[in-house]
Amino acid sequence: MIYLDYNATTPLAEEVVRGLQPYLHEEYGNPSSDYALGQRARAAVAGARTQVAALLGAQPEEIVFVSSATEANNWVLKGVTHQRRERGRHLITTTIEHPAVLNPCLFLLEEGWEVSFVRVDGRGLVDPEDIRRAIRPETVLISVMLANNETGAIQPVAAISQIAREHGVALHTDAAQAVGKIPVNVQDLGVDFLTVAGHKLYAPKGIGALYIRSGQRLTPLLHGAAQEGGRRAGTENVILDVALGLACDLAKDRLAADMVHLQARRDQLHELLQAGWPGLVLNGPVQERLPNTLNVSFPGLSGAEILAGIPDLAASTGAACHGPEVKLSHVLAAMGVPPHIGQGAVRLSVGRGTTAADIEQAADLLLERVRTLA
Known about the structure:
By secondary structure, this protein is of the alpha/beta class.
């Protein structure tokens, strides 16, 4: 199988697998215990927290381990709005966010909050000035993803943070797709909250992190004991915390080389597909895009049909089939992609393990399939 769905999930890095082995066996202590076994577990979690912080340009005490990016996003949206409900009951997000942001926003709508869903342009990029125009005196939070999971479009979060600061509004970014693929520094971005997903950067599923800028407060989602500085109750998952720390440390060391490799494989694939299918359409920006992500359409065809006929290729579509109907993804729909183009979309995302030979074979398989369907 040729795996081109790294935006969905990544395999575990070998360095991560090796590093977490002791915590599967002999290092099973509870970090809250005071004897040596517990102390070593506590030190391991602290070390992992430092590794995550180092990748993000944060302080260790600003990092909280969570179960997933979904938990982190829910926590920010519900925790900030609960903390600041006396100031106002309005928040801002965009039309292309992950469901882990959009659905909590819909929940808050049902709870009486007002939510502004800012549109994007045809490239999938939000205009910071549209964010500025959406701000009201009662706005308490802005949530804009750093990089889109479908198109790879990198949003102008640093510019939005300047606007947010001018109005005293907290800013959150879901950076699940960005961390480990491009430089992500919380100081440069100017964000108050930032979400990390472990399984997008070669750590296991079931672990993530939330950056909380010093001085910012969130109402906890989980109430219990005083783990994570009293911010998230529950016995620490030492194994997964260590794994995320190792993955972040690896990403920090490899980032520059990885970016070169990812972009080379992505562009190789794009060039081969364009040469073999001149009507190919790129969905998303040419430049402001993750180095590993290629979302393209074969107009007049069905992305789902294309991939269904290539069992040896793992990739995603830009549309979902519901019985006889084909529904565009909310991202492509928000970009104004016409149905006859969007229905033929496929998302191809490369990773560290992707070789030039993989790309050549994937392009051949895709082109052979679309020629059969045309």
